Amino acid sequence: MKLNIKTPFRFFNVWPSHEEFDTIVGTLWRRKEANDQMENIWKKLKALKPLFKSLNITEYKGIAERIDNARADLIQVQEEMRLRYSDSMLLQEKTILQNLEKWSLIEESILKQKARLKWIKLGDANTKYFYVVMKDKSQRKQILEIYTDDGVKLATPTSVKEEIVKFYKSLMRTVDASLPAINKETIKNGPKFTHEQQLSLCVEKVIPNIISEAQTGFIPGRKIADNIILTRELVKAYTRKNTFPRCMIKINLTKAYDSMEWIFLEKVMVELGFPKRFQDLVITCVKTVGYSIVVNGEPTMHFPTTKGLRQGDPILPFLFTIVMEYLSRSLKGLEKEKDKYHPRCSRLGIIHLSFADDLLLFVRGDITSITQLQQCLNQFYRASGLQANKTKSSIYYGGVP
To answer: Is the confidence at residue 21, as pLDDT, over 70?
Structure first.
């Protein structure tokens, strides 16, 4: 079944080599589209799309036909040169060869980009291979039927697209109306930004001062390998007999970046003492996001979201560590009870280790300790909107009868 789809806009790498490219971009970029700087850039980029489409149609449409015509002209000229040679015909042959090489390289570049083959660096042109890869990708990415949560089968292109969009809209719909306020006493259980740090805020330099040492990922000066080595040392005794009861819980957070509640991030930044101007900039960037789902090669209409962090944003790792700091400080309450510690963790003050959206929790292997740990986690889940992925989470015991 072949679907009639409208493909999304794609920027081809051959366009910048066109002689009119700089003029097109430069003329539009000197215009002012909006007063806000970010909106001005966004509108300029959007205005470039129809100009690039027009350039593609007028200059790059029918490349295969141009190559065939150039080859036919080359054969004709060479036949005439065989019968009666002249310098003018030699020059004509050279011009046709240059034109054939130009369009052959353009065709190869476009097909290679469409095929998305990054491992090919150098070698002979093989456009047939690129066509095969593109055809295979086109066939594999089509969703011809889908089942709803109620078990209803959807088989039409429209119903499939609507169901997929419905799923992602529900995934990124906030539930912050039912979220409890964060516990201010919890967030105060650690350092905040000083007045001097607020005045000279550089996230990379000051973030290590307020983030718990349990978090090593994305923090400048820390290595995630340190947590890996430490974990290896802590689990050595799990298979021994007659060892003290201990428990390690591995938690994977379900769609951690997409499930983060904006109101929770905002409140944590306030309580940590981030400057008001910085908070406003971050929240503005976080909330001005919309998504379009590509279904069977065709993009859907854009729709806004009410939660989640935009993946690919350079500041996203820092924002996520800020959010996870709330859990770190919540778990610090367990450190006061020395009998709840995992063996060998009391002196180091270790309750958990963080690996981005994966957590390792260490506690004494008894019901009371694990119950208190679960209570901290439940409070964090309710406040942040994050949830554990039970299929990817595990629990390990040692020394427990």
So the answer is: yes
| DSSP annotation string for 150-204 | T--EE-SHHHHHHHHHHHHHHHT---GGGPPPP-HHHHTSS----HHHHHT--HH
- DSSP assignment, residue 304? E
- pLDDT (tens digit, 9 = 90+) per residue, 73-125? 888 888 888 888 888 888 888 988 888 888 888 887 877 777 665 545 545 45
Best CA proximity match to 396, nearest among 349, 342, 350, 327: 342
Spatial separation of the C-alpha atoms in residues 272 and 281, rounded to whole Å? 16
Rounded CA-CA distance 368/252 in Å is: 23
Tokens read off for 52: 């690039």
Task: Encode burial over 168-206: b for 16+ CB neighbours within 10 A, e otherwise.
Answer: eeeebebeeeebeebbeebbeeeeebeeebbeeeeeeeb
Cβ contacts of 95 within 8 Å, gap of 6 or more? none
d(CA 45, CA 1): 35
**For 258, phi and psi rounded to 5 degrees?**
-80, -20
What distance in Å separates the CA atoms of residue 175 and residue 262, rounded to the nearest whole number?
10
Look up residue 224 and give its two tokens.
């995630």
Q: Taking a C-beta distance cutoff of 8 angstroms, is the pair 172, 291 a contact? A: yes
